[in-house]
Amino acid sequence: MKDLVLEGLLLAFRHVLRAPKIRLRGPSSEEGTAWWRPSSLTVLLLLLLSFYIVQSGTIYNILEKPPSVTMEMDPATGLQRPQAVMKRYGAQTITEGMTGGLFYMLGTLGVILIDQAPSLGSKMGFSRNMQLVAIGTGAVLFLGCYKMINVFVSIKLPNYLIYT
Predict the structure, then answer these.
(1) 120 with 134: CB under 8 angstroms?
(2) How far does the signal peptide extend, from start to end residue (predicted)?
(3) Which tens digits make up the pLDDT trace of 145-159?
(4) What does the pLDDT average to over 83-89?
(5) Beta strand segments in 26-109, E
(6) b vs e for 34-73, b when ≥16 Cβ sit within 10 Å of the residue's Cβ?
(7) What is the gyration radius of the CA atoms in the chain, in angstroms?
C-alpha cells in the first residue's frame, strides 16, 4: 500500500514538473570532437587541491585571522618560545591548519595509490615491482599521515583516549 502511494505521488510530481528538452553543446573543433577536456590527472589534482584548501581551514583562517604561531612561556628560563599547535580545543594556528590539511591530503593520496596500484600494470604497462613500490608508497603515506594526525590530536587534547 505504501509503495502505491509513493508511486502515485512520484507520478503526480513528474506530471506537474517536467524536465525541459534542451540540447547543450560545448565548443567543438573542425573534427567534431570536444574542444577542450581536462585529463583525469588534471581533475585529480584540482580535487586534491580543493580538498587541501577545505581541510586546512582556509575559510576559518580568512574569517578568524588567527596568528601563524603562538608564544608560550618557558617555565625554566622565563623566555617565550614559539608554539605551533594551540592547546585549546576550539582554536588553531595557521601553520597547524595547513600542516593538518597536508597530512590529510597525503593520507588520501596514499589510499588512492593503494587502490590504483593493481590497475597500473594493465593501464600503464608498469612492471610488478613498480606496482609493489606504489602499494608500499601508498601504505607508508597513509600510515605515516595517520600517525602524525594522532600526534597532533595528542598535542591538542593531551588526555584524549587515555584510560586511567
Answers:
(1) yes
(2) none
(3) 999 999 988 888 888
(4) 81
(5) 70-73, 80-83
(6) eeeeeeeeeeeeeeeeeebeebbbeeebeeeebeebbeee
(7) 25
What one-letter code names the amino acid at 132? Answer: L
Query: DSSP letter at 35?
Result: S
Q: Which residue matches cell numbers 597500473?
A: 120
Contact indicator for 104, 145 with CB cutoff of 8 Å: yes
- In the numeric block, the cell 534542451 is attached to 22
Question: What is the reported pTM?
Answer: 0.70
Query: What is the rounded distance in angstroms from the CA atom of residue 22 to the CA atom of residue 122?
Result: 39
Burial of 113 (0-12, 13-18, 19+ CB in 10 A): buried
Instruction: Extract the C-alpha cell encoding 16.
Output: 506537474
Count CB-CB contacts under 10 A for residue 120: 18
